[in-house]
Amino acid sequence: MIKDVLKDAEERMKSAVSVLEEDLMGMRTGRASTGLVEKLMVEYYGTPTPLYQLATITIPEPQMIAIRPFDKSSLKTIEKAILASELGLTPNNDGSIIRLNIPALTQERRLELQKLVNRRVEEARVAVRNVRRSAIDDLREFEKEKMISEDDGKRGQDDVQKLTDKYIHQIEEAGKRKEAEILEI
User: Residues 97, 110: one domain?
Assistant: First the structure.
């Protein structure tokens, strides 16, 4: 029973960390990254489809992303999706490839992004703490119903706290890495 609670808590905490990492990947820094555009939803034959399913995305230069659609007829819709996104990038379409030039970030924009990273990190921390609270509530419920002993309940709570500390640390590290990337000139 305790193992089930711990396993469930760990899976949910892992998912909070992976959601944060995916979120941070999509944030623009001064350097090109496929993570900026690969999850961008493009209207393809009436169906919203992630860009990585419609095109090959490469980084030919540190400040440029090249998008080569598998189907040339989707160039215009991909271009529209990029313009409509909040990336703030202007696509250059030469008829077969879309090129996105990534301009260097201004100091003001870097600070905005840093605040956004901190907000996302805090949201992930809160998500992990909510999982901890829920797991500890489950353990206390088992204890109250005499399904586990008080000592087992205490040990279980300590294990949940260790998991929480482990995942909070991973979240902090992901945030620090992204901040360093943003502040790097």
Answer: no
Q: What is the CATH number of the domain that holds 44?
A: 3.30.1360.40
Contact between 45 and 32 (Cβ < 8 Å): no
Number of compact structural domains in the chain: 2
- Inform me whether the pLDDT recorded for 35 exceeds 80: no
Same domain, yes or no: 75 and 111: no
pLDDT recorded at residue 72: 86
Domain that holds residue 97: 34-101
Confidence class of residue 185 from pLDDT cuts 50, 70 and 90? low
Does 126 share its domain with 173?
yes
Residues 123-181 pLDDT 10s: 999 999 999 999 999 989 888 888 888 888 899 899 999 999 999 999 999 999 888 88
